[in-house]
Specification:
homodimer, mainly alpha, Arc Repressor Mutant, subunit A, two-stranded antiparallel ribbon, 46% helix, 5% strand, DNA-binding
DNA sequence: CTTAAACGGTACCAGATTGGTCCGGATTGA
DNA sequence: TCAATCCGGACCAATCTGGTACCGTTTAAG
């Protein structure tokens, strides 16, 4: 797998919708309508994103949500962390010991850290602005000649 | 999360154990003893790794498993794919439509493809030789990659 | 001051997925 | 023949995710 949760996927849908009208105020209800996602799910998403400092919330009547930063300042890594928690491929992050019963396992723990960092960097490199960019067609002449495994 | 399965983690433990005696033949029983992991789990892992062309299996009495390639030729991406299946962060891979009920969702599908590829590249960049390398302290000057382990 | 609209937090449940186990069958060297 | 080993399923329990509901708090409008 190495799959991120469906919620994170939905979050990007909501965020790109908001990014199209950067700076505007959106209510949970309006975003529900515009995205077509189930209402309670959208509410949950917005709460999480607000906690993660990706959205700014405005309470009370005429309240709603706005992007906390311009889209180019919001990275995929931040979105994932807001929804799914810290990005860590393995259960026990480096440095910790004892959480996993097997001793020989933790010995190799530091090795994953390298992978973690590489993935992290890749995720930090893509912003919401990139995600909101035109969907560009896929049958266009592929500039890469790599094998592009069915990812 | 963006968490990979515990099985994959175990797989690395088993593989690094094998890598230390590159080329040698290992049985499921011996690897169980050396790693301390539960026996049925090790068996399952070895089967999966053999199917994924990461291990070569030898049947019959005096059979066992060997690494299909030198450690520097086995990437983390390959291991993950062998255990967890194809690396795809989102449910519907690019190009497909209709699998997810929500229409506005699939429209942004292509955006994830960029992220997918970035992560994939990061995972392709780390080999089993790297994982088997000494646990090295984190503030030490990192030596060049490509250890003598690979031969 | 009352009302209503909107966010905030928490608890809860069903379904899917993972981790772990077991058993019988096939292969091969002694 | 016999025993050691891999091979391929089926199977079950535990965990996690996705989705829902409820109630409290805040705040603008009338």
């Amino acid at each position: 797998m190495l799959r991120l949760s469906k919620l994170t996927d939905y979050a990007v849908v909501v965020l790109t919708t908001m990014a199209r009208t950067d700076g505007a105020l959106h209510t949970a209800a309006s975003l529900t309508e515009r995205t077509g996602l189930p209402a309670p799910t959208v509410q949950k998403l917005l709460k999480l994103l607000a906690r993660g400092d990706i959205l700014a919330s405005h309470r009370g009547a005429t309240g709603g949500y706005t992007l906390a930063r311009p889209p180019c300042g919001i990275t995929v890594a931040q979105i994932i962390e807001a929804i799914d928690g810290p990005i860590a491929l393995t259960d026990c992050v480096d440095g910790q010991t004892g959480s996993c019963g097997v001793e020989s396992l933790c010995a190799r723990r530091g090795s994953w850290d390298k992978v973690n960092r590489a993935v992290r960097r890749a995720l930090d490199d893509v912003t919401l602005a990139d995600m909101a960019a035109p969907p560009l067609f896929f049958d266009a002449p592929a500039p890469e000649r790599g094998t592009a495994l069915a990812g």
